[in-house]
Specification:
Number of strands: 0
Radius of gyration: 29 Å
Order of helices and strands: HHHHHHHHHHHH
């Protein structure tokens, strides 16, 4: 009985494949539309996509055009071709801005770029595109069912960009341990990060490492610059403990402050 069932299943699959190939190769647009819709409804997005690609130009300006274009864009998304999905959702919105599917298309268009966003250490062009599109979606569809997910994605991408900026500043500081000339850009980079990202999850780290960079800069400065830079480093410490009085870095920061105070005593005399 099991063997009979297996043979029947194979026969059905082969017949389905054969029918699909016939429709794919012929010129009957209606047959392609019907089969594409059948595959789409069944979740067979790969085969639906091939048929939709063929017929989409034929339905431009026709009543079914809106449906075909949305299915085409979504079939790209479902098959993880996010570059094409983003492009096709944009085309859909330009062609049918008042569609009932406009909010869904805007969301999945933005999500396509979200899926393309790479590791924080790489170029963030797609991250920037995704953030712009997500923010536009959030602003124009405040009551959407997708709003919560859009906000979560936007926050994740924002944090990714913050990490990139923070890691660049931290790298300057690390190199500065071996090359004094990198300490000034490190302090500047941390200053810029703190100013540009007031609510960042990396704010505590940035304030501490700014203090660390400023201290090393002061201790390695020429004598005529030293007093001013020691005071700058002390100000960085005060700013750090003001915002994070119970920081995980506090013990180390207090040890560093003691070094600064000893150096500053030379100038008080």
């Amino acid at each position: 009985m099991k063997r009979l069932f297996s043979f029947l299943l194979i026969a059905i699959v082969l017949n389905s494949c054969s029918e699909y190939q016939k429709v794919l190769k012929n010129e009957d647009v209606k047959a392609k539309y019907d089969m594409a819709e059948k595959f789409y409804d069944e979740g067979d997005f790969k085969r639906a996509n091939r048929l939709l690609e063929q017929i989409a130009p034929k339905y431009i300006g026709k009543p079914q055009g809106e449906r075909v274009m949305f299915f085409l864009a979504d079939s790209y998304f479902q098959t993880r071709d996010y570059n094409m999905a983003g492009y096709q959702f944009e085309r859909f919105l330009k062609s049918y801005p008042k569609s009932d599917k406009a909010a869904e298309a805007a969301f999945y268009g933005a999500k396509s770029y979200y899926e393309l966003s790479p590791n924080y250490s790489l170029d963030q062009t797609d991250t920037d595109k995704a953030l712009v599109k997500l923010q536009n979606f959030i602003n124009t569809h405040p009551d959407s069912e997708y709003l919560v997910e859009a906000n979560i994605m936007a926050k994740e991408l924002t944090t990714k960009k913050e990490r990139k900026s923070f890691e660049i500043a931290k790298q300057f500081n690390t190199i500065g341990e071996f090359d004094y000339t990198f300490l000034t850009p490190a302090v500047t980079a941390f200053d810029n990060f703190i100013s540009d990202n007031p609510g960042s999850v990396y704010r505590e780290d940035a304030l501490y490492y700014k203090f660390d960079a400023a201290t090393n800069l002061a201790l390695n400065s020429y004598e005529f610059l030293k007093k001013e830079r020691l005071n700058d480093a002390k100000d960085a410490y005060l700013s750090f403990v003001k915002y994070f009085p119970e920081s995980k870095y506090l013990k180390e920061a207090n040890k560093t402050l003691e070094k600064l105070e000893k150096e500053l005593q030379n100038y008080s005399k």
